[in-house]
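Hi C.,

You asked whether I'd gotten around to modeling the 196-residue construct. I have! Everything is below, sequence then structure, no commentary in between.
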Amino acid sequence: EVYVDDLRQDFSATYVEDGDNVIGISPNVLKAITDGDANTTEMARALLLHELQHGIQGIENFARGGSPADFRTEADKRVLNKYNKSVREVNRLRQMVSGNTEDLDVSPITGREIRGAVASLNNKDIDLPTFFESTAALLESDIYDSRAAKSIAGEMRRALAEFNTQRAAWSTIDARTMEEYMSLRGEQEARFVQAN
C-alpha cells in the first residue's frame, strides 16, 4: 500500500515495516509522478523502486535497509539537538534583522534604513556567514548609533560562531552514520534496484 503523507514537505518516500508493507510518500513525489517533467518523474520512480525493494526484503526476509538515525548514539542525539538549537537561533536573528526592526530600539527611519540595507544583502546570493558578518558590521557602524543595534550585532556574531561549531560537530557524526547506513546490505541492494 502507498499513502501520501501530507505533513511531509520534502521529496521523499519511506518504507514502514509494520506488517502491512506500507510506503509513505510526500506530496511532492506524487506531484512528480503525475505532473512532473521527465527528470522529476524519473527521480520519483527511482525513489519508489528503492522503497518497494525494502518491502520485498521484508516479505522475503532478506537483509534489511535502515536509516542513518539507526546508528546514532545518545551522545550523537545531544549534538544534533544542539545543532538544531543553533539553527533556530540563527534563523530567529536573520528574521529579526530582515523584517522586524522594532527589537533594535531605533527610530522608524533608521529601522527602514536597516531593513533596506539588510534586504539588499538578502537579495544577493551570499552564504550565511557572509550575511551575518555583513549585517553585524552594518549594525555596528556609526550610521546606526544604537546600543540595541550593536547588541544584536554581538548576538549575531555569537550565534554564528555557535552555529559553525555545532555544524562542524554534527557534520562529523552525520558522515559517520551515513556511511554505516549506506553499508547495510539491504540499502546496497535497494540502491542497485533503484539505479537499474
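If it helps when you're writing up: The helical segments are 27-35, 38-60, 74-99, 108-123, 128-140, 147-182, 185-195.

Thanks,
B.
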